[in-house]
Amino acid sequence: MGKTIVITGAGSGFGALAARALADAGHTVYAAMRDTAGRNASRVAEAEAYAAEHQVDLRTVELDVLSQESADAAVATVLTGAGALDVVVHNAGHMVTGPTEAFTPEELAAVYDTNVLGTQRVNRAALPHLRAQEHGLVLWIGSTSTRGGTPPYLAPYFAAKAAMDALAVSYAAELARFGIETTIVVPGAFTSGTNHFATGGHPAEQAVLPAYEERYAGLMDQVAQRLAALAPADAPASLVADAIVEVVGTPSGERPFRVHVDPANDGSEEVSRVADRIRAEFLTRIGLDDLLAPHRATA
Q: Using CA atoms, how far apart are residues 296 and 177, in angstroms rounded to an integer?
């Protein structure tokens, strides 16, 4: 049966690809994005055109993950419009590039606000409904940088994605007894098909950049080029959308805890396999192994 799904940051990249793929699979999908009447108005029109052309249930909803009021309003719109909410996909994110020292604490906090606190705002809006119905899926779009290869000049983004992963892991155990399932989809470095690098921010403070440029001349371009060279030419960003569709379509209780989509194979899957095994073993050792899978609804 089709599910009602909301995807944050669905104006472009993984979010837009997943929204269309999920709608094609027969789900009711709310592609959430901010400024739907302004900067993203063209993306709203594109989603509407796609829905009409392909005869699928793809809708858009205003949602700025930096605002609790916006998150609350978006979830209310979904519940009013569709009468249900089954899946929340945490996809919204922002990347910045540059020497870590050059970023002010406020700039690091802004990256954390989008990538981590944004998920918390959406959860606080959606989870009361999912808990009340005693089923649902929270699907997090992580990053192989959390445990895999970490090239320099991406530290604020990597730190925020690691924090989001830690939050997702804790939420998984805390939501299991409400029948709510967790999956973390972990993309590798897709340097095309998304806007991460194209729209990424840079440090406003320029004073320290010359010193780094002297020792690390052209490093960011080198990183982007070498990441692109690692990925096979036939590995499109749509692979991430395909993985999301497969997870959503898997019956509750059978979904994987973590799914890697990493054509470059930066080592994250290997490390995560160990970390997730240790997590499961530890919860079992302390008598909390029931938290490793969602409970069935009591009614």
A: 8
pLDDT of 194 higher than 70:
no
Tokens of 125: 């809006």
Catalytic residue among 50, 157, 171, 216: 157
- Cβ count within 10 A of residue 122: 26
pLDDT per residue as tens digits for the range 130-163: 999 999 999 999 999 999 888 899 999 999 999 9
Closest to 235 (Cα-Cα) out of 196, 186, 190, 270: 190
Q: Active site includes 30?
A: no
**Interior/surface letters 243-276, b for 16+ CB within 10 angstroms, e for the rest:** bbbebbeeebeebebbbbbbbbebebbeebeeeb
Tens of pLDDT, residue by residue over 10-45, are 999 999 999 999 999 999 999 999 999 999 999 999
C-beta atoms surrounding 42 within 10 Å: 9
- Taking the C-alpha atoms of residue 279 and residue 281, their distance in angstroms, rounded to an integer, is 6
Structure tokens at 232: 């096979």
Strand order from edge to edge, sheet including 258-261? 58-62, 28-33, 4-7, 87-90, 136-141, 180-187, 258-261
Q: How many CB atoms lie within 10 A of CB 32?
A: 32
